[in-house]
């Protein structure tokens, strides 16, 4: 995310970094934008992303990325928000996930 926030800032876009305290305590984050909001938990991070974000884009990542993506999709299905959601499928990173979701639709577990 650091590269994305740096590129957006360089091109004149506003970027707000919402950082859970666990990330800063373990030095998992580097400062890449001027505005930073520290929150206590990942859930609080997601709520702030909902409050301040115009859209959601998932980039290749780990468990936190998947958790946030599925939470945002669930909230969209429940009409909690109508913000755009995108997945940047770099080098087919999410192909396996898309196959799983297609299978889940075929089995009528999700619509």
How would you summarize what this structure contains?
The chain has 111 residues and is of the alpha/beta class. It has 5 helices and 4 strands. It has helices at 2-10, 21-25, 42-52, 63-77, 95-106; strands spanning 16-20, 35-39, 56-58, 85-87.
User: Proportion of β residues?
Assistant: 5-15%
Rounded mean pLDDT score: 88
Biggest beta-sheet profile: 2 strands, parallel
H/E order of the elements? HEHEHEHEH
Residues in helix, %:
40-55%
Number of strands: 4
Q: What does it look like?
A:
It is a single chain. With 111 residues, the protein is α/β, with parallel strands linked by helices. Helix content is 47%, strand content 14%. It has five helices and four strands. The strands form two sheets. The protein has a two-stranded parallel ribbon. A two-stranded parallel ribbon has the order 3-4. The longest helix has 15 residues. The chain is globular, with a radius of gyration of 15 Å. The mean pLDDT is 88.
Q: How is this fold's topology laid out?
A:
Blueprint: H1 2-10, E1 16-20, H2 21-25, E2 35-39, H3 42-52, E3 56-58, H4 63-77, E4 85-87, H5 95-106
Parallel strand pairs: 1-2, 3-4
Task: Write out key terms for the chains shown.
5 helices, 111 residues, two-stranded parallel sheet, alpha/beta, two-stranded parallel ribbon
């Amino acid at each position: 995310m650091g590269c994305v926030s740096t590129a957006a800032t360089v091109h004149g876009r506003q970027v707000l970094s919402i950082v859970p305290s666990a990330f800063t305590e373990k030095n998992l984050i580097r400062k890449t934008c001027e505005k930073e909001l520290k929150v206590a938990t990942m859930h609080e991070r997601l709520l702030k992303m909902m409050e301040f974000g115009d859209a959601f884009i998932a980039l290749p990542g780990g468990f936190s990325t998947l958790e946030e993506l599925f939470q945002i999709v669930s909230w969209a299905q429940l009409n909690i928000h109508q913000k755009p959601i995108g997945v940047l499928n770099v080098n087919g990173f999410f192909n396996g996930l898309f196959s799983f979701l297609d299978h889940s639709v075929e089995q009528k577990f999700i619509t």
